[in-house]
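Bench log, entry 3. Co-assembly request; chain sequences pasted below exactly as received.
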Amino acid sequence: MPVSPKLIRTADAMFAFSRDNSDKTIALVPTMGALHKGHHELVREARRHADVVAVSIFVNPTQFGPTEDLDRYPRQLGDDVAALAEQGNADVVFAPSVGEMYPDGEKNQQVWVTPDRMDTVLCGAFRPGHFRGVTTVVAKLFGICRPDVAVFGLKDAQQFVILRKMVRDLAMQTRLVGMPTVREEDGLALSSRNRYLTVEQRAEAVVLSKATSVAHSLVESGTRSADNIRSAMRREVEEASLAKIQYIDVVDAATLRRIDEIEPGQQVLAALAVFFGGTRLIDNSFSVAP
Ligand code: AMP
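Structure output for the full assembly:
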């Protein structure tokens, strides 16, 4: 029989749990639920870093834009807790209400953790306010859960780079671990949003990982012109008749600054966002130039 993780619904109870376990190390895996294999890999990784593993499940309203999918984002807490029990790696599930996380209502949030510049490129250029919502909610989660370690997926590369900078710039005492992207057999990155794809869109969605693989090979084989890499990625995506490119870019992996000429030894992030109908998919690859 799988042992169910302890379900905690209030910030006070979560904080009390963390304090009661202050003699142990705690790992936190922040998620918005609708858990898939990618999330479970993060939880499994968390187990390797700490005595106690907490998974937070919270669909954070402040990271969704006014025209985004907040209302239709899948919510399935019962299934998620059952799946975590089945996997056996989570000790606690922290699933607060919006009121717990935003006591005065999210519209009355007045003090934010706001990234500087790093949130105006890549996804941030098209999702104003998104990363401010992410940094703010993660700072809250860190305050409530007091984790020694937090595990995030590199699938959300810009999120990871910004959070790593947040921890450094705000002297937070949580160590971040980045997990490689978990993929379907054909390369499509697992995402809670893949379920929105039609059969035809799903078949074509493989172009995202093809494009980021091409970028990876080009960087690692010594291509210096970032524009050539952007063009090669674009050609891959244009193979898909149903794809609408939002952006394709090649940036420095630490600063997220746009690159013209890749320098020897530079760590490069190639990233893209593509719409299939109303569904927005992202992917990326990290590479080190020779
Ligand atoms: P989300 O529920 O979409 O906010 O994702 C929660 C965490 O899971 C984030 O750190 C994501 O980067 C990570 N994640 C989502 N999809 C994947 C995947 N396919 N592989 C690895 N990590 C993932």
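The radius of gyration is 19 Å. The chain has a mean pLDDT of 97.
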